[in-house]
Amino acid sequence: MKTGMKMDAGLPPTAPVDVRQYAGLAEQAGYDALWTSEVRHDPLLQLTLAATVTDRIRLGTAIAVAFARNPMTLAVSANDVHAVSGGRLLLGLGSQVKPHITRRFSMPWSQPAARMREFICALHAIWDSWNQGTRLRFEGDFYTHTLMSPFFNPGPNEYGSPPVYLAGVGDRMTEVAGEVADGFIVHGFTTERYLREVTLPALRRGRERSGRSMDGFEVSGAPFVATGRTEEELAAARDAVRGQIAFYASTPAYRPVLDLHGWTDLGDQLHTLSLQNRWQEMGALIDDDVLDSFAVVGEPESVGAELVRRYGDLMTRAGLYTPYELDPQVAVAIAADVRAAAAS
Question: What is the per-residue burial (b if ≥16 Cβ within 10 Å, else e) of 94-115?
Fold first, then answer.
């Protein structure tokens, strides 16, 4: 199956703000891109540091929280990172969920899919005003940007504007990605069946709405992987992945994935436990059927071929979602196996 799938690396959520060592090792290992997420640090700051010690590897946010910002502040930050990295930024955005936007970031929340569509369109309008010299006149329902004085205009970026990727789970946000973004970031909480029956059709609808095909549109994902070199390591990896699946499954916004598989009751049970702060008990509710649907489970030598079998025709970029400490050399070996399987 010749898929051309690119193999990417992801920074662990526990990575320090200074990720230069991680970035240098990822480039040396031959990864195509390095992605960071907005968990404990600013992902754009981390990628700026990564850019100083790398020359080739693409640098992506998976994700930066769009609604914690406004289009102008993000347009400036992303433009700067794209410039200092030599045009290597992949700007991945996500909405987060309502409690985090309203209670953690103290920002407004309403109509997330429509708001995100407008947010990305506003980004492009701002970048066009700098790169093309067009008058900035963006007036929407959620964002208005009509002032760009020369003093605040950075001028054209020699690398243009960065490609924008959008993360989503529900079909409405996914359609927005197809319509206005350059790529889609698959949430880790997904299954092969959900991708085929819900995600890809929604992306195609969005592309058709904008008069474009799927040609050149990137789909980036990092499926759950539970692996280990010994029985003990594999058992610990399974437990860690069960816990992470349970965490996501407790969130009502991600319920459509469970509903498709007939696991609605599981989601209800996990949500109840989360409200009771009984996080440690939740992983035990993820049985083997659920685990195997969400994760590739097995010895390291089997993981690469299975990733390509499941996702080779669905994703153009792939990484590994391992919510446990995986030996970097094992990850590199799996990446090599993916490339070999994708090319065969």
Answer: bbbeeeebeeeeebebeebbeb
How many other C-beta atoms are found inside a 10 Å radius of the C-beta of residue 143? Answer: 17
Question: What does the block give as tokens for 254?
Answer: 């991600």
Please give the Cα distance from 41 to 223 (Å, whole number): 23
d(CA 18, CA 45): 9
The continuous run of DSSP H or E covering 309 comes out as helix 300-311
pLDDT in tens, 270-304: 999 999 999 999 999 999 999 999 999 999 999 99
What number of other Cβ atoms are within 10 A of residue 84's Cβ? Answer: 15
Strand 218-221 to strand 224-226: parallel, antiparallel, or no bridges (unpaired)?
Answer: unpaired
Pairing of β 89-94 and β 164-168: parallel
Beta partners for residue 317, in sequence order:
6, 220
DSSP string over 142-158: S-EE----GGG-----T
Query: Mean pLDDT throughout 9-37?
Result: 95
Each residue's pLDDT tens digit, 206-236:
999 999 999 999 999 999 999 999 999 999 9
Map residue 293 onto helix, strand or coil: helix
Q: Mean pLDDT over residues 166-171, rounded? A: 94
- What are 336's two structure tokens? 């090599």
Cβ atoms within 10 A of the Cβ of 158, count? Answer: 10
Residue 66 in tokens: 């769009």
Mean pLDDT value across residues 137-153: 98
Distance CA 270, CA 249 (A): 7
